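tokens incoming
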């Protein structure tokens, strides 16, 4: 993870909010450069967007990043099994407390039988409080996955971020 500060912050905003999808490859290359040894990963899953948000944005930035990482790792990218069940407000403008409530039970697994005992790498763009990836991990573990690992491009630097001591205990595994 890189600090979510300029110039990375501007690049992610251009990519995510202004549709500069040509930034997917160089941003994914930054993630690939920081990949820990993950030889045991079975499948890669991007954090899903709700269909309404996907219709507005026209692409899922996490899926574009995951596609590049999947090609590099020679692992399948499955983007239809982990779903967002509710059209939740964007996390960016919410407080830490609101973020925790906003995504509670917002993710589900369509075909649980397909992930039983699978080791899954979840890809997202920015890690702030960890709420999004934690909720994804809960849904995947509840459905029977063996392990859930998480990788994000950026990590916010601020008052509401996850303390380093927590990340040190679980740097990639949730």
């Amino acid at each position: 993870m890189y600090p979510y500060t300029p110039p990375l912050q501007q690049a992610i905003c251009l990519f995510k909010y202004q549709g500069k999808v040509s930034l997917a490859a160089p941003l994914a290359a930054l993630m690939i450069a920081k990949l820990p040894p993950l030889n045991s990963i079975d499948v890669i899953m991007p954090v899903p967007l709700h269909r309404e948000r996907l219709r507005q944005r026209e692409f899922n930035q996490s899926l574009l990043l995951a596609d590049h990482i999947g090609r590099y790792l020679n692992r399948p990218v499955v983007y239809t099994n982990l779903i967002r069940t509710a059209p939740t407000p964007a996390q960016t403008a919410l407080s830490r407390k609101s973020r925790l409530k906003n995504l509670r039970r917002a993710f589900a697994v369509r075909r649980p039988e397909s992930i039983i005992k699978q080791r899954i790498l979840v890809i997202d763009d920015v890690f702030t409080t960890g709420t999004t990836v934690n909720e994804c991990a809960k849904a995947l573990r509840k459905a029977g996955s063996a392990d859930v690992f998480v990788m994000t491009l950026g990590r916010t630097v601020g008052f509401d971020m996850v303390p380093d001591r927590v990340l040190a205990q679980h740097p990639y595994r949730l």
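note: The radius of gyration is 15 Å.
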